[in-house]
TrEMBL record:
Name the UniProt record assigns to this protein: Aminotransferase class I/classII large domain-containing protein
Cofactor(s) listed in the protein's UniProt record: pyridoxal 5'-phosphate
Pfam family, any one: Aminotran_1_2
Gene Ontology molecular-function annotations: pyridoxal phosphate binding; transaminase activity
UniProt family annotation: Belongs to the class-I pyridoxal-phosphate-dependent aminotransferase family. LL-diaminopimelate aminotransferase subfamily.
InterPro entries in UniProt: Aminotransferase_I/II_large, DapL/ALD1, PyrdxlP-dep_Trfase, PyrdxlP-dep_Trfase_major, PyrdxlP-dep_Trfase_small
Length: 294
């Protein structure tokens, strides 16, 4: 997975480094009860998870998660119609074997590490230069994205969490509704969201951008409040809807107007079969306001 990364020109939220997040004097957060204790060495905090940590974190996640709902409905349907062939559109696991061209290359590369010529020690932290160059030319041929813009990581979900750590707990965020749960969950962990509201089944401080058949699965941006971060997934999980060029142009303009950063998740871009953009970087100006994951 890779994140193409640019100099973000929009008035970005206070992007704190990990050390500055941990050095914050208000690190004790009532929502998750993680307690930062200053130890003798200057600038160091010891994190102590109190018993309340488990309880209150559980309480935070004690909402009817999409995944749980899908599983419950599938079980109920199967109980009623035991012969039904259910195709699950919920969160699941991969189901198809990895193509041989990939696994053989991985096996060869691993084996090369056992040879004097192939051994390389630690790899480059942003990913192997050759791989990054290949990603840049294969996926972003004429879009002005270069090897140095690519970061190869261990997965989009981990990147979401890392970006959230970088953004810190004071940012505001918008998310498609419905969308892949990791955006909201990582936001909850960071303490950005406020408490879960049982009546609305939403978190108080998140800006939910309704995406449904009535609005063509693209939010009415005139009704969306200004936030520092916008998570946007296209094609979206779970709806499968991909945003058109016009819609993404509106989204980029919206982010520029509000000084927001778009975290654009295109995990399913390769499934796009019409002329919808496979990358937000096809939209002029998107590089100034967006980070893309795939
Ligand atoms: C929209 C979306 N983004 C990211 C991910 C996670 O990707 P990764 O396996 O690279 O962590 C998933 C996995 O289901 C997903 O549906």
């Amino acid at each position: 997975m890779s994140v193409a990364n640019h100099q973000l020109n929009a008035s970005a939220p206070p992007s704190s480094s990990l050390s500055s997040i941990f050095a914050r004097s208000d690190f004790t957060r009532s929502s998750v009860q993680i307690v930062g204790v200053r130890v003798k060495k200057p600038g160091f905090f010891k994190c102590v998870a109190t018993p309340q940590t488990v309880l209150s974190t559980r309480r935070l996640f004690d909402h009817d998660h999409l995944k749980t709902q899908v599983a419950r409905r599938r079980a109920a349907h199967l109980a009623k119609y035991p012969d039904a062939q259910v195709i699950s559109l919920g969160i699941g696991d991969t189901t198809e074997p990895i193509p041989d061209v990939i696994t053989s290359a991985m096996a060869k590369r691993a084996h090369d590490l056992s040879t004097l010529e192939g051994y390389s020690g630690y790899g480059a932290e942003q990913g192997e230069k050759k791989v990054r160059a290949a990603i840049a030319s294969t996926f972003y041929g004429n879009l002005g994205i270069e090897e140095g813009d690519i970061f190869v990581s261990d997965g989009a979900k981990c990147d979401i969490a890392r970006l959230q750590m970088l953004f810190g707990s004071d940012v505001t965020m918008a998310v498609q509704d419905p969308s892949y749960p990791a955006y909201v969950d990582s936001s909850v962990i960071m303490g950005q969201t406020g408490q879960y509201q049982k009546d609305s089944e939403k978190y108080g401080k998140i800006e939910y951008m309704r995406c449904n058949p009535e609005n063509g699965f693209f939010p009415d941006l005139s009704a969306v409040g200004k936030t520092e971060i916008i998570f946007f997934c296209s094609p979206n999980n779970p709806t499968g809807a991909s945003a058109t060029r016009e819609q993404l142009t509106k989204l980029v303009q919206f982010a520029k107007d509000n000084g927001s950063i778009i975290v654009y998740d295109s995990a399913y871009a390769m499934y796009i079969s019409d002329d919808s953009p496979r990358s937000i970087y096809e939209i002029p100006g998107a590089k100034e306001v967006s980070i893309k994951q795939m």
